[in-house]
Amino acid sequence: MVDLKGVFRIIKQFHLPTRNLLHIDPLSGHESIKSLSIRFWFENLRRRTALPTAYSLEQFFEPSSFIRDQNDSISSYRNKWIRYEDGVHRPQPALLRMVDEKCHGSARDLNHPLWRALDVSDQKILKGESFLRALAPGVQTVIFTPEDDAPLIQSARLPVTFVLLKRLVRKANLDAVACLVWLLRESRHAGGTNTGRIGMALHHVLLMMAMDLHAMKVARPLLQILVDRILPLAMQPHERVALSVNEYIEASARLNILVYRTKIGKGQSLPWSKRTRVMAKLLDITYGFDIFFAMGKPFRIDESAPGLSQEHLRLAASEKKDADWGWECLRSNRQGNVKEMLERYDYEEIPVTADT
Description:
This protein is mainly alpha-helical.
């Protein structure tokens, strides 16, 4: 995961409008899941090997692609890996096996369960538990009962509760995202009552991870799919997703920085598991209302929705004031005082009537 210096670099970069955007379909407005999975595979290889370019990665993984002359100088090469970087060509199984020998587990990045979970047209994955069984062991320990001593008895799935979702949020990795997307789709498909809680959990995981995904150049297209297709499954008809894609990235960067301004994180180099615990507390009002009002809620009332009641309009105005105040505090690097926020409201005098 990105360190503190990396967080500051990302904050300087996230305003660039074209960053992370490749091969957008003009009809759907989204990058294809296939392209996204290829680019994620490529970027993770670049991160793991610390090799900066497609050329250097091709040299490392496929030295046979380079033809040398009699002086042992490179005379030509296939220039194949630039197509992986751009997400236009899917690597063949033979290459995946060869790459996986040097970077163990990298093939799973290309075939990660998340890519299938994002395809809302694929309803087959909601049948049974095979999808959940394909998730990483760390996530499976959250959603299934502990293994019994009897090796032939398969562990049972646990009910979706506040505690289970909290444990998934603390994982905050790609498998946790895949699991939450699947749970949200399942709950919506079955007409369950947990969609709101699952949506909140997914929102919090995205806030923690968006910065790191941005560093890998996949945050914007991935978040766009989640904002447009997945998170709305947990919304009420009169609501909209609270944050834009750019706001998710900015919020994530600021949330990760705030970890290092707490007593736990100050002057420390925290492992990801501890950082997620601190971020979870930052989002639940433990450290103040400003963070919660700026980014804590996944949905807000959609002021453009037809037929809103006066109460909904009043709540929409209140939500906007709260969010504006929260962002103002975060962007000015100061801790907000809730009294300051309350002073901004124009209170109506309520007449007091005596009992007759």
